[in-house]
Amino acid sequence: MKNFFRKKDYSAQEGKFERKLGVIDLTALGIGAVIGAGIFVITGKAAATLAGPGVIVSFLVAAVAIGLSALVYAELSSAYPISGSAYSYTYLSLGEGIAWIVGWELLLEYGIATAAVAVGWSGYFRRFIEEQFHLVIPQALSGSFDPSSGTYIDICAFLAVAIIFALLTIGIKESASVNIVIVAIKFVVLGVFIYYGIKHVKFENLSPFLPFGWDGVWKGTSLIVFAYLGFDAVSTVAEETKDPTRTVPLGLVLSLVISTALYIVVAVVLCAMMPYDRLDVPDALAFAMYQNGEPFAASIIALGAVITITSVMMVMGIGFTRICYALARDGLLFKNLADIHPTLKTPYKASILGGALLSFMAGMVPLGVLAELINIGTLFAYFMVGLAAIAVRKYHDASPRFTIPLAGILLPLNLLMLIFIMVGLPGVTWLRFGVWTLVGLAVYALYGRKHSRMNDPQSDGPTP
């Protein structure tokens, strides 16, 4: 049992990656992860089914909660600029077993999110090529495995993930450069929506503002938080960042501030353009434009959704491979996954494994099954990082360049807000989360505990 709580000292750890990324790269990575399927899909669904125009408040509450978590990540990443993100922070402060559980949940977040977003991307892509080029994907290749409906594989989702992971294998700087271009296009697309949408704003559509009451705002927040997930991917590439004690905190905070501002403006315009009860569609932004006689803008937005979701897949893929690398580096997963390519300087075996596994999931498994566990697993990881920050401040002699202001108030508030959001999730989600966690504990007991590098006296030993 004592092994479960043994801690690792990362203070002297040397990174194996080449440091190539700057503030612009990291900010773009964060925006690429955050602004994606959430703004194009979740906004309309949350407004129509949970919160009405009050979804604007849901965005604000979620932004505060996730913003507090971003400050926590910023402080920890400036003190310990290492790969692994939440996993590494909990390893050094709360112990190996807790860190394994967090890493296991992060694999769930990044891995399943990559596959789930790919399925959504496939839907937008197929609709776009059908409407613009009259190209129809055969039924057998246009959906997850379901012989009763005549579908056997979603070939577009499968190929999208395979290509993304091939790019990640080639190199992180090349991937980040592509992501910057995609994020620039994303700003243009959202600018088109805001520009054309403002002309059709009718403030009477914002009344009643809380048709589902404050309970709807609360439940809406539990769903809307999905739109903010992925900002923590910035901290997973700390070992590949120039001057990480300054650059990583800046990338985290800037990406979340910019994303939140865009979310709120888009939510206000969308809810004011259309009655909220008509927004329960998968392409709410484009739908609103079509309904208001703006087909050109609608086409631009539909294409933008395809491009935007591509960037989300890329950033989630980066997070998945870096968490795999961190777990393997410490012996808790197969050690070969920590191998760095001598020329490309990437964890190529982790990328190849991720590409093979997640492209299969994207092609064969339905979107609903993939998406169920993402929110709760990620919120749990954020909660544990909040505890880790408190433990680091109390028991470790860390010297972060960035420190949380009013930490005595904001650190406990961060934990309380995360609990508040998690409690709003359905009971069945908690049940599945419990099953996934028990599977992770079994993997640790049968493999990770025995192969941990902490068992090797020549490796990094436990912190006294």
CATH superfamily, by name, is Amino acid/polyamine transporter I
The biggest beta sheet is recorded as: none
Round the Cα radius of gyration to an integer and report it. 22 Å
Beginning-to-end CA distance, first to last residue: 16 Å
Low-confidence stretches: 460-464
Tally of helical runs: 16
CATH class: Mainly Alpha
Identify the overall geometry: globular
User: How many discrete domains?
Assistant: 1
Structural class: mainly alpha
Please indicate the percent range of residues in DSSP E strands (runs of 2 or more): under 5%
Q: Helical content, roughly?
A: 55-70%
Count of strand segments: 0
CATH architecture: Up-down Bundle
Please trace the helix and strand order, writing H or E for each element. HHHHHHHHHHHHHHHH
